[in-house]
Design brief:
By secondary structure, this protein is an alpha+beta fold. Strand 1 and strand 2 form a beta hairpin. About 45% of the residues lie in helices and about 15% in strands. It has a two-stranded antiparallel sheet with strand order 1-2. The protein has 4 helices and 2 strands, in the order αββααα. It has one domain.
C-alpha cells in the first residue's frame, strides 16, 4: 500500500513506485474512475489507446482484409500513391 499526501491546493503527489507501475512521467494525465465506492487511477494515454484498439477490433476483417499482411500491403500502396511514386 502506498500513501499520498494532499496539498492545500488539493494536489496529490503520486509515489514513484505508483508512477512507474502506471508508466507515468511529468506532464502525463491521469484518469480517475470510481467503481463501487473505490477510486482507481490509470494512465490516460494507455486508457485511450486501449479503447481505440477495442473500437477497431475486427475492423480489418469487416473491410475484407484476409490477414494483417494484406492490410499492411494496402497501406503501403496508399503511401506510395500519396507520395507520387
Amino acid at each position: 500500500m502506498e500513501i499520498a499526501k494532499i496539498s492545500s491546493k488539493g494536489q496529490i503527489t503520486l509515489p514513484i513506485s505508483v508512477r512507474k507501475k502506471l508508466k507515468l512521467k511529468s506532464g502525463d494525465q491521469v484518469v480517475i474512475q470510481e467503481e463501487n465506492g473505490r477510486f482507481y487511477f490509470d494512465n490516460a494515454a494507455l486508457v485511450a489507446f486501449t479503447r481505440i484498439e477495442q473500437a477497431f477490433d475486427g475492423a480489418a476483417e469487416e473491410a475484407g482484409f484476409a490477414n494483417e499482411q494484406a492490410m499492411q500491403d494496402y497501406v503501403e500502396e496508399l503511401r506510395k500513391e500519396t507520395e507520387g511514386e
